[in-house]
Specification:
The chain has helices at residues 22-50, 60-69, and strands at residues 5-7, 17-19. With 72 residues, the protein is mainly alpha-helical.
């Protein structure tokens, strides 16, 4: 990748560091947040499934009908 540099361990007291452009860093941070959010949703879905609270439907349309009919 263009514009990415590695700073050797000998210059940083034993830690190899990487310098990236700010826009690349911001994209990585945003991606990390999106992945964490998705994993949180998946974890909750797995918990709901194990507790028998998951919707069972053959299509998204059917799932939306079932969800809309449930009291919240």
């Amino acid at each position: 990748m263009k514009g990415i540099f590695t700073i050797p361990k000998r210059l940083t007291n034993g830690k190899e560091l990487v310098v990236v452009p700010k826009d690349v860093y911001e994209r990585l941070v945003k991606h990390d947040e999106e992945v964490k959010h998705a994993l949180k949703i998946i974890t909750q879905g797995e918990k709901d499934y194990k507790e028998g609270r998951a919707l069972k439907a053959s299509s998204l349309r059917e799932a939306l009908k079932i969800y809309a009919a449930k009291p919240h």
